[in-house]
Specification:
Chain lengths: 534, 100
Amino acid sequence: MSDNSMSPVKVSLSGRIDSGNAAQTEQSINEQLAGKGNIPVVIDAADLAYISSAGLRVILRIKKSYPQLKITNVNSEVYEILEMTGFTEIMDVEKAYRVVSVEGCEVIGEGFNGKVYRIDKDNVVKTYKNADALSEIQHERKVAKLALILGVPTAISYDVVRVGDSYGSVFELLNSRSFSKILATEPDKFDWCVDEYVKMLKKIHSITVPKGELPSIKEKTLKSVLRMKDSLPNGLGDKLVKMIEDIPESDHMIHGDYHTKNIVLAGDEVLVIDMDTLSVGHPIFDLIHMYNAYVGYSEYDPQIVLGFQGYSSEVSRKFWHDSLRAYLETDDEDRIADVDRKVRCLSYAGLIDWEIRHPDADAQKANATIELWKTRLIDILQTIDTLDFEIGISDASGLSELNIDATTDNLEKVIDFVNSRLEAVDCSPKDCMQLDIAVEEIFVNIANYAYAPETGKAGVRVEVSGNPVTVTITFTDRGVQYDPLKKEDPDITLSAEEREIGGLGIFLTKKVIDYISYEYKDGRNILTLKKELH
Amino acid sequence: MLNIAKSTENGKAILSLDGRLDTVTAPDFDKTVREVITGITELKLDCEKLEYISSAGLRVLLTAQKIMNTQGVMKVCNVNETVMEIFDVTGFSDILTIEN
């Protein structure tokens, strides 16, 4: 048994601890801990009014014998002493939380993990059902702050309080309406909701998250699929696992529970709430949770969506389809259907795992639901070989990225993509042509050589910045490691007879742009081009 | 997109290029050049409407130039400024006979 899994021993302190009673207090604590070995100790300071330096020395000695010491429920006077003396830096000190009662308060929202109560005119408290509510609250506060800093408009709780035996986080009451409410009551706002909803989703997906700040949603999905994969026949479970493993890694932000109850309109500002599932990963992982909320979860019983979102399954299905269409920026129904299929594949797998672990009270219904999802999942698994898809992500900041099959057939799409990102800037015909040349040469090189004879993906990212306006284009691929800058320049003084036919592409690229660099990192070739516009 | 208009007369061929000469259109251009080049003594490429050229297009021009050097002359006419700059930086303005 490791130390961490031992339940801590709680010691309570009360009143004043000073030179008059410090020795006595120390003796009493040592008696309570005697013979228990090196265990985690929690000092409950709820009733501690004052502590002098003699008392602090007692705590230091206890900390020495029991390194896993934690002090909780510290009132603000005592906390100030601990902070001034540097104790808060050498040990785990938790402030006492304000106690809030929700008895008789209006419930204004309810989710799977808890309820939201209105506690007075201006404030709401969000409570949590889970035993480990405090760490969950702290996690959500941390990621919500990160999201806000990175540019996602969201509401942040300003206080953590005690609610009964658990904890809650306090938010300012927003004069807001969720998109679910708007869709349920104002059908003529449907298209507006789709537009704003997708715009916000793209904004989230365009954000690059510093390494280590958020968990990878791919790993979480893999865990869930590993739990259910053996319920699929003919090795299809292993095929699914392999396909998930093959989804490219990404450091872009994912909300993780992006449905219309979590998008609210406050005044004329659109906000995203419920940030606890914030992660990084491929956009498909957000699409999965969207599909779950709109269609997947209620696929057997369409009434469920009405209960959950407040609008009918017809509205819900149309909202999913139209959002996906807007997100993919396409009217090509085949393409939408292709991505829809890939999304459903992972959606069903996750839902099956979920239902097994949280079965409907009606066992017959639970089984029928699982069977329906399983049948559809098996159908899809037999027809697809990859979960990846092409996507253009852009936002107002001028940063955008395209992930596309590296084939010369896609050259026009890549050029169009780059040009569409340059529309906003004043790019002379000559600069545009020179950028086109550079993009063509690099992309065609990747298409011809990176994965030959197979094909694979290339990433194209366009950033526009600064004064003078500079365009930065970054190409990435996971093909064979190759540094094109090592290639020797052709001798352009030779006569036509002497000159070789090939070898001009990279040379020409170097001539038409201002800066080029290559690196090989994390299994990727990364080629960066920069050009100042004139 | 690249449109190629061709005319041949008395051992001379004129190809007028309209559009973009890139990785996608170069194979077509190469095919057209090979169709007309046999036995001619002069090949004239009218570039008045040529908007764009990449290394794939340059390769075809070099191939054509090599062939024409053995059997006659090749002239490249009405080259616009941006395409001309590509010929300059790649040394093609020294290889090709450019008539503007």
